[in-house]
Amino acid sequence: MSTDTAHGNVIELAPRRDARDARDARDAVGGATPDRQPRTLIIRVTLWCADREIHRQVGINDAMPLTELHRVLSTCFGFHDHAAGSPWSFTVGPRVFRADGCAHDVLVGPGDTAIYTWGLWRMFIEVIESYPRDRGTPRALCIGGSGSLPPDGSGPQFDPADINAELTGTETITSTLALVDEAVSDLINRSRIFDFIPLLQALDLARPVHLDDRTRTVLDTLPLEETPEAHDAFLVTVLTLSSLVDADLGDNVIEATMAEIGWVDDEGGVLTADRARGLCAESLRALAGVGGYGTGALPPVERLDLYRYLLRR
After folding, report:
1. What is the pLDDT along the chain (313 residues), one digit of tens a residue?
2. Phi, psi of 17 (to 5 degrees)
3. Where is the composition biased (Basic and acidic residues) (predicted)?
């Protein structure tokens, strides 16, 4: 919390005004802005109950129809069976949005707020962040939250993995995992981190790869280590490398995934990313030898062919 109370109470009006002006301009021409590029919005959604608050943080494609956003929010809160058939709407000030339109008609950028109503439920939505999308970004992803319905524990408890599996869809998960190596499929199922599914879709695993015979021979031997822990560490590292994220985020992905499948360090604590890479160091050296890792790595487009070859059946 800021210790400067004067600054802490200042509302940044410029971003709100810019967002409002953008929305007004869009309304004036009757719909979405032509040639507009979709963005990812990170939204915080709060449901106030009599005795508690329930929160969800969700990443969404701002080009999704409001009908889809309605489904996403109902899935994230787990109350889609509680108010089936009830009327729903999104409200910004005096304006009410229902089935027509897209998410960006209601929420444009950081600081924007709206009220989502479904039956007797009323939720407050605030945009926390906005950034450009890429092919690997899921249309919707629950990235955090707290609380659940009902509070006595008789219903499903908050579990982002279950929520994201439902958002992704069982059919999509099954068809995507059918394209990957059996060990990779097993790892994703054990971790229940289905955030990897959009990544694998974006990799387009069925596309031809252009690798010479020597490179294929090296990749066919990986991983070189024999222990289950090292095998998992190598596959998690390759999945992370294929996402082309920065080093800090990559470390977070490795640590979170290894934790979800039950691997810990010798003291029972978190297995760090460095330690995980150490478990499969020989394999990573071999991968570096063909340009898939380290300071001498190939350009991203060429590296992706290596990762496709390793990950697919």
Report:
1. 333 333 333 333 333 334 444 444 444 333 445 578 899 999 999 998 877 889 999 999 999 999 999 999 988 988 765 556 678 899 999 999 977 889 999 999 999 999 999 888 899 999 999 988 876 678 898 988 988 876 555 556 788 888 888 888 877 888 889 999 999 999 999 988 888 888 888 788 888 999 999 999 999 999 999 999 999 999 999 999 998 888 998 999 999 999 999 999 988 999 999 999 999 999 999 999 999 999 999 999 899 999 999 999 8
2. -65, -45
3. 14-27
- Beta bridge mates, 130: 41
Look up the pTM and report it. 0.62
